[in-house]
Amino acid sequence: MKKQNNLRSLAAQAVEQVVEQGQSLSNVLLPLQQKVADKDKALLQELCFGVLRTLSQLEWLINKLMSRPMTGKQRTVHYLIMVGFYQLLYTRVPPHAALAETVEGAVSIKRPQLKGLINGVLRQFQRQQETLLNEFATSDARFLHPGWLVKRLQNAYPTQWQHIIEANNQRPPMWLRVNRTHHTRDGWLGLLEDAGMKGYPHPDYPDSVRLETPAPVHALPGLLRVG
């Protein structure tokens, strides 16, 4: 039976390795995904990619809610709190579950004495969320791009730079082509719905389907397996 690990602590460790050590997320994520159940791999991936995509916002929130940065061996907790923020802001994970699992992540990284700190910061964010997000919306961090890149885009595209940044911040869609040797497109969309997923047909390409939420290939229904 596959050992169960705390998903949030794994995501925090992955993000830390990417940000602090300059490692590739693809290389970091693969061995970590082997530590969780198949049903949880997509969420682990979502947390890692999501935190990195919104890193400047999450850093801004931590700076607002914590008087001192976490350093040294406690640095992983910094990223664990980011994972908590991301869940509360961008995922459908119920807030109580996001809080409980993130706080419990402190045990997995051998920092149980910091559970109270993590819980306090996340609950403070919940209480002040509207005020904080309104303030964030007027800050430079709202662009989710490093300052040097924003300035370069402003200089190069003075009338279009905001549109470029908005496009950069969009999550790329996941498109699939249905193999009509095995399924009709409508039939496969039905399998997708039965599996709790949702897809949308392309109006011009009869074999194409866009997933509402990207998912790992092994989780897709009706996949033809060879061997």
Automatic annotation (TrEMBL):
Span of domain NusB/RsmB/TIM44: 6-127
Keywords assigned by UniProt, alphabetized: Cytoplasm, Methyltransferase, RNA-binding, rRNA processing, Transferase
Top-level division of the source organism's lineage: Bacteria
GO molecular function: RNA binding; rRNA methyltransferase activity
A GO BP entry: regulation of DNA-templated transcription
E.C. designation(s): 2.1.1.176
Pfam family, one: NusB
InterPro entries cross-referenced by the UniProt entry: NusB-like_sf, NusB_RsmB_TIM44, rRNA_ssu_MeTfrase_B, RsmB-like_ferredoxin, RsmB-like_N, SAM-dependent_MTases_sf
Protein biosynthesis listed as a keyword: no
Ranges of residues in domain Ribosomal RNA small subunit methyltransferase B-like ferredoxin-like: 145-218
Family annotation (NCBIfam families): rsmB
Name used for this protein in its record: Sun protein
Protein species of origin: Salmonella enterica subsp. arizonae
Taxonomy of the source species: Bacteria, Pseudomonadati, Pseudomonadota, Gammaproteobacteria, Enterobacterales
